[in-house]
């Protein structure tokens, strides 16, 4: 007889979406998870003309790596009538760019220092094709901090969609979730891939300084991994404070 074992892992303490690829995102209190993840996540991107693809700050090359210092938020929620809502961008100097403005591309080009434009993300121009949700636990951040106490292991460095508070637990517990099902709010997720880290975790953003030790720590302590990717197998609403439960199949012989 096949049965299931349900284990409480923690609760959601952070929900984020990133309307523009490689830019800082916006925090949410609640989200309606769909098969494509959080609505509005990575809808837009800044074109890298040399590759004819969306620029990736993760590759660490100027001028594109500076995009991580910009912040983006959607002006309206995505809908069937408007699947690509406009976005508002805040620059490091405090200035702003509105995607609905006629001079948006000229201003983006001036700020980045290279001729470029804001484009919609699609299957042909995207730089990443991973699963739509990235999960990270407080247990992993604590383990990194123990390994490198002077490092600032803020969630923002790792750009998760969901941050799970696991209480006093410390360690890379999500690494054991590969192949497992997660129950979260009204939704169900399937974890299927580790999240390998890159130079993006070291770049300065907001109050976080440039720190190569962040990536060095993830490499030494956990094979350059931090967090996992998941697919949404059952859409549903999630909220800050929702419990995350791990569902594992357990095989037991009939009595």
UniProtKB/TrEMBL annotation:
GO terms for molecular function: catalytic activity; molybdenum ion binding; pyridoxal phosphate binding. Residues 84-247 form the MOSC domain. Residues 78-101 are annotated as: Disordered. InterPro entries: MoCF_Sase_C, MOCOS_middle, MOSC_domain, Pyrv_Knase-like_insert_dom_sf. Pfam families: MOSC (PF03473), MOSC_N (PF03476). This is Molybdenum cofactor sulfurase.
């Amino acid at each position: 007889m096949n049965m299931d074992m349900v284990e409480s892992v923690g609760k959601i303490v952070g929900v984020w979406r990133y309307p523009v690829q490689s830019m800082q995102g916006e925090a949410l209190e609640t989200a309606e998870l769909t098969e494509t993840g959080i609505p509005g996540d990575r809808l837009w991107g800044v074109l890298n003309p040399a590759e004819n693809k969306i620029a990736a700050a993760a590759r660490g090359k100027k001028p594109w790596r500076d995009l991580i210092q910009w912040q983006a938020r959607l002006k309206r929620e995505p809908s069937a009538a408007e699947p690509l809502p406009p976005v508002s961008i805040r620059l490091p100097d405090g200035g702003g760019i509105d995607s609905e403005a006629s001079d948006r591309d000229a201003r983006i080009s001036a700020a980045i220092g290279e001729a470029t434009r804001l484009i919609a993300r699609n299957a042909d121009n995207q730089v990443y094709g991973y699963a739509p949700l990235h999960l990270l636990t407080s247990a992993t951040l604590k383990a990194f901090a123990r390994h490198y106490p002077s490092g600032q292991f803020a969630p923002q460095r790792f750009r998760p969609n969901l941050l799970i508070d696991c209480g006093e637990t410390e360690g890379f517990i999500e690494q054991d979730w590969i192949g497992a099902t997660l129950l979260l709010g009204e939704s169900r997720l399937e974890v299927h891939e580790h999240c390998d880290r890159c130079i993006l975790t070291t770049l300065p953003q907001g109050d976080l300084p440039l720190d190569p030790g962040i990536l060095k720590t993830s490499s030494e302590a956990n094979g350059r991994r931090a967090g996992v990717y998941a697919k949404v197998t059952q859409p549903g609403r999630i909220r800050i404070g929702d419990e995350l439960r791990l569902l594992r199949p357990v095989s037991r012989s009939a009595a």
